[in-house]
Design goal:
single chain; mainly alpha; 6 helices
């Protein structure tokens, strides 16, 4: 079953925002409550977590669109929404295609382990890790139905 684009957009934006919120909120929580655990990572930890959330979204999108070897209309819509979130810019046509190719290239350089490493390394963030798993599951379940 394919989700219509007008239904997909708000749902996808919400899951993307939720994923970012989990990464950012967990970073801020750890900084506020246990800054000594971060040591040299303290400066820039929120930015690191923001980058990791972007990487996670890239990795999931790449896995979904590579599954069938085609770039469908719905995958373009999803890609446009994702790229708008990642780079705060709206792209269409050739620019969107080039950006999507860049996203795929970046995905090849990312490991799942690295993208969730802080949630594993810092035991106090393990509860947040389950929220990330839920977010990933939500994306993995309905992105394929959104992309056809």
């Amino acid at each position: 079953m394919t989700i219509p684009a007008n239904e997909l957009t708000p749902q996808l934006r919400r899951v993307i925002k939720d994923t970012r919120r989990i990464y950012i909120d967990s970073a801020k929580w750890l900084i506020q409550r246990h800054p000594s655990l971060l040591g040299d990572r303290l400066p820039g930890f929120v930015e690191l977590m923001d980058d990791l959330h972007r990487g996670l979204l890239i990795k999931i999108y790449a896995d979904v669109i590579r599954a069938d070897g085609q770039w469908t209309r719905m995958e373009k819509i999803v890609g446009a929404i994702l790229i708008e979130h990642l780079w705060n810019t709206k792209l269409t046509g050739r620019e969107l295609r080039e950006a999507a190719e860049q996203v795929l290239s970046q995905a090849d350089q990312l490991s799942w382990h690295a993208l969730v490493k802080p949630f594993v390394d810092y035991s106090l963030l393990r509860d947040w890790h389950s929220q990330i798993e839920t977010s990933v599951s939500r994306l993995r379940i309905w992105l394929p139905s959104a992309t056809g």
